[in-house]
Write a structure and sequence with these properties.
single chain; Rossmann fold; Arc Repressor Mutant, subunit A; 2 domains; 13 helices
Length: about 325
C-alpha cells in the first residue's frame, strides 16, 4: 500500500508539543501506512513558542502532493500567515487534500478562507476571538474537535490527540485507533468537550451593585429560592435585577443560578463520592434527571464521566 502522506505545516512560532505529537502519532512506529514530513514557508530554522528552533528541510511545495495537511498552533495567532502560506493551504484543499488544525492553527485555516461557512473550533481561550475575527466561521466553543469531512479542527494540545485518533479511526477502523491509543497510553475516545475544562466565572468582579446578593445565593445553592427573593435581598425590583444580570454578567438570573449549581456539582464530584440523587439535592436541582440534563448541557458530559475524569482516585 502506498503510504498516506501527512505534511505538517510549521508556522512561526510553532507550538512544539503539538508539532511533535502529530509527527509521533503518524510515524511508522504506529504500524500504520502514514509518512510524515515537515514544511515551512522557507526551509531552515523555524522558531517555536518554547524559545528554541527546529530545522525544517522542505518548503511549501510539499503541500502540492500532501494527502493530509496538519497545521499545529502558532503565535502570534492574531497575525495571519503570509499570503503565500494561505494560498498554498487553499490550493492543497482545492485539489482534494484533507486539512486539519490543532489549537490556534484554526486561525491559519480561517485566514485561508477554508473555514468560511463551516463549523470549527479552537482552544476555548481563543474561541471568541476566532468568531469575532472571522464572522463567517461557525465557531463552537465547547467541543474537543469538529469533523467537516475535508476540514477538521480541534481545541488545545490534548484535543489534538483526540482529533488524530479520530482520523485514524476514519482511515483504518476502531481497532487501529484503539491499538495506537494503548501504545501512547491515551483514552481512545473522550466523552464531553472543552466545557468540562473551562473555569466559568459565576461571580462578578469588585464593584458589582449586587455582589453581596450573589454571594448569598452562591452560599445557599442547596436551598430552593426564586429570582424574586434574590431581587428583594438586592433591594431592587425583579425586572431591574434581570437587567443588571444581563448588563454585568451577560446572562439572566436563572441561567446564572443553574450555572452556579452545576459548578457546585463539579466541585462536589471532584471531592466526594455521593450518589447522583444526593448530589442533585445538595446543589438545589432537586432530581437526578434534572441534574443530568443541565450538567450535560453546560459541561458537555455526564456527572459520572466527569467524576471519573476529575474525581479523587479510589484505593
Amino acid at each position: 500500500m502506498e503510504p498516506h502522506r501527512v505534511v505538517v505545516l510549521v508556522l512561526d512560532a510553532v507550538e512544539p508539543l503539538e508539532l511533535a505529537m502529530v509527527a509521533d502519532l503518524f510515524s511508522r512506529r504506529s504500524g500504520l501506512p502514514y509518512h510524515v514530513e515537515l514544511c515551512a514557508q522557507r526551509p531552515g530554522l523555524a522558531p517555536t513558542t518554547a524559545g528554541y528552533r527546529i530545522q525544517i528541510q522542505h518548503g511549501l511545495d510539499m503541500l502540492d502532493t500532501a494527502d493530509t495537511v496538519m497545521v499545529p498552533g502558532f503565535e502570534p495567532h492574531d497575525q495571519p500567515p503570509p499570503h503565500q502560506v494561505t494560498d498554498a493551504l487553499a490550493r492543497a484543499h482545492d485539489r482534494g487534500a484533507r486539512v486539519l488544525s490543532i489549537c490556534t492553527g484554526a486561525f491559519a485555516l480561517a485566514a485561508a478562507g477554508l473555514l468560511d461557512g463551516r463549523r470549527a473550533t479552537t482552544h476555548w481561550q481563543h474561541a471568541d476571538e476566532l468568531a469575532t475575527t472571522y464572522p463567517t466561521v461557525q465557531v463552537e466553543h465547547d467541543v474537543l474537535y469538529i469533523d467537516e469531512e475535508t476540514i477538521l479542527t480541534s481545541a488545545g494540545v490534548a484535543a489534538g490527540i483526540d482529533l488524530c485518533l479520530h482520523l485514524i479511526r476514519r482511515d483504518h477502523g476502531i481497532g487501529a485507533a484503539n491499538q495506537l491509543a494503548r501504545l501512547i497510553v491515551a483514552p481512545p475516545h473522550r466523552d464531553g468537550g472543552q466545557a468540562q475544562y473551562i473555569q466559568r466565572p459565576v461571580l462578578p468582579g469588585p464593584g458589582s451593585t449586587f455582589a453581596d446578593t450573589l454571594t448569598w445565593a452562591r452560599d445557599n445553592l442547596h436551598e430552593h429560592f426564586t429570582v424574586g427573593e434574590m431581587a428583594r435581598r438586592a433591594g431592587i425590583s425583579e425586572r431591574t435585577l434581570v437587567r443588571r444580570f444581563i448588563a454585568e454578567l451577560g446572562l439572566t438570573p436563572i441561567r446564572w443560578l443553574i450555572a452556579a449549581r452545576i459548578d457546585l456539582a463539579c466541585e462536589i464530584l471532584e471531592q466526594d463520592d455521593c450518589g447522583i440523587d444526593e448530589l442533585a439535592r445538595r446543589v438545589g436541582l432537586g432530581t437526578a434527571p434534572n441534574l443530568r440534563t443541565h450538567f450535560r448541557r453546560l459541561v458537555g458530559t455526564t456527572p459520572a464521566v466527569y467524576r471519573r475524569t476529575f474525581g479523587k482516585p479510589t484505593g
